[in-house]
Amino acid sequence: MPSLSWVNLEWRWQKFFYVLIVVEVPFTISALALFGIADPDLYRTQLWQEGANHGWNSDPIEILYSYANYAPISTPTPWNQWITTYNVIIAVLSMFVMLVKTVMFITDTFPPLLSVIIHGTLAALYAVSIDNQAASDYSDPLHPSKYPWYLTRSCGAPVNPSLKGYCQQAQGAFATTVCLCALFTLHMVIALICCRRTRAQKIELASQLSDYESPVSTFDDKKWEMEMGQYPRTPGTTGGMKTPMTPRTLAFNTLDGALPSRRPNKDLPLRHHIAMGNETYTGI
After folding, report:
1. What are the start-end ranges of the H helices in 54-152?
2. Cα angle at 191 between 189 and 197, to 5 degrees?
3. Under DSSP, is residue 279 helix (H, G, I), strand (E, B) or coil?
4. Can you give the pTM of this predicted structure?
């Protein structure tokens, strides 16, 4: 039996897969919109500065001072540009995967094993995004921040009212990331369960494999010889192996001198009578 015979290539709960797709569509579109709006720096630096004004995190101006003093420091992870770009990339990737896998599932070319690989990868990518969005900011020892302030505080007072909408967008982007990570994890778990064959499927597979087995392979050597003994021998091999005599064999042996050549008997005289005037010619 093949080593991957335990892998099931069919979905058990197809309707449940469609339900997950329907749930995934609005979250994927929301992630693509929220991350696309935030890129490259619509409100990230403004929220960073707002937190510094209230003493909730480090101050962006410290980055400029560090470069001026020839002691540059790295931008804290939640306020870094690369995390915004990273979120846009995985949102676009999620949209592409959602469209492709839907078409493949409809055409029965999206097995559970492939679903485990794809959704496991997406879940890991979104887990990294969650970790970066909720990263700490300890660049300023006087104002340490374990989490970004908009994840632990409301967007109301004392936050600047002009930043309330941006604060809510940042919160919504983080919530969407968490939901997509959970959704892709659920996708992966369900596909992993479907990969395992049930007892009935294993019995059916064993039955199908047995139908393709050759009946001759079940015979031992002795029985095989007995079966072969029932068939007639090749002509010319009775009483031991002999070379069968065929007209072609006789001809080749004659040419090689193995057998005496059969010279044809002398033809009888053939008389040809040709009448030419009064003379008659006889030829042999």
Report:
1. 61-68, 81-106, 112-133, 149-152
2. 110
3. strand
4. 0.68
